[in-house]
Design brief:
By secondary structure, this protein is mainly β. It has one domain: Metal Binding Protein, Guanine Nucleotide Exchange Factor, Chain A, CATH 2.170.150.40. 4% of the residues lie in helices and 47% in strands. It contains one helix and eleven strands. The strands form two sheets. The chain has a seven-stranded antiparallel β-sheet with strand order 1-4-5-9-8-7-6, with no helix packed on it. It has a four-stranded antiparallel β-sheet with strand order 3-2-10-11, with no helix packed on it. β2 and β3 form a beta hairpin. The longest helix has 5 residues. The chain is globular, with a radius of gyration of 15 Å. The protein starts with 5 loop residues before the first helix and ends in a 10-residue tail after the last strand.
Length: 137
């Protein structure tokens, strides 16, 4: 591997599963549709709630702007962030993506996810968990 994740070496029992889905995923803020995709993946990660990702190209580019926020995951890499702008105002850092992920998470390249505590994310018409991504108890 050219760009292995250091986290897996330090924590060999940790898992990040990237599972392609057939579901339709729709993201809204109020009445504004931010994104729609039938090419999503579900990421199941040790001790985390499941997280939906979709191709960044399935997000309405006219409604988003990149921010300076950057976070790091030792399993996935550095995440870039975007804010969403609707008639209701901006929602800061509502979207993130791993634009250059570590090898083990390469399928996430170009895929974006959403803070479900900042947006409404629907999977086949059902509202997803509003707790947002994060550690499970």
């Amino acid at each position: 591997m050219a760009n292995p994740a250091p986290g897996f070496e330090q924590h060999p029992n940790y898992a990040v599963s990237i599972l392609p889905q057939d579901s339709e995923v729709v993201v809204r803020i109020g009445n504004t549709e931010i994104a729609r995709s039938q090419r999503s993946v579900l990421v199941e990660e040790t001790k985390h709630r499941p997280v939906w990702y979709m191709p960044l190209e399935d997000v309405n580019q006219a409604l988003i702007s990149a921010t300076d926020t950057d976070t790091y995951c030792p399993f996935k890499g550095h995440a870039s962030y975007w804010s969403v702008h609707t008639e209701d105002g901006p929602v800061t850092d509502a979207i993130w993506a791993y634009m250059d992920p570590y090898d083990e998470c390469e399928p996430l390249r170009g895929y974006a996810s959403f803070y479900t505590n900042k947006v409404d994310l629907y999977v086949d018409g059902e509202l997803a968990n509003k707790d947002g991504p994060g550690w499970t108890s």
